[in-house]
Amino acid sequence: MKRRNYPDKFDWNYFLKYIAIIAVSVALQNLLTTTGSMIWALAGNLTGLI
């Protein structure tokens, strides 16, 4: 069997950098969605009171 040409060392900095970019963007998306739904719920409650 031939040995495959794998890189000598795994580049953890590169990997973790891009995992962090994905994680932050997903977290921001969830935060904005949650905040938006809270504002809509508040607006709905306020219009019900008027």
In words, what does this structure look like?
- The protein is mainly α and 50 residues long.
- Helix content is 76%, strand content 0%.
- The protein contains 1 helix and no strands.
- The chain has one helix spanning 12-49.
- The chain starts with 11 loop residues before the first helix and ends with a helix.
- The model has no long low-confidence stretch (mean pLDDT 82).
Distance between the terminal alpha carbons, to the nearest Å? Answer: 78 Å
> What proportion of the residues is helical, as a percent range?
over 70%
What's the SSE pattern?
H
CA gyration radius, whole angstroms: 23 Å
Number of strands: 0
Instruction: Look at the helices and sheets and give the structural class.
Output: mainly alpha
Summarize the structure in short.
With 50 residues, the protein is mainly α. It is built from one helix and no strands.
Please supply descriptive tags for the structure shown above.
50 residues; mainly alpha; 1 helix
What is the topology?
Layout: H1 12-49
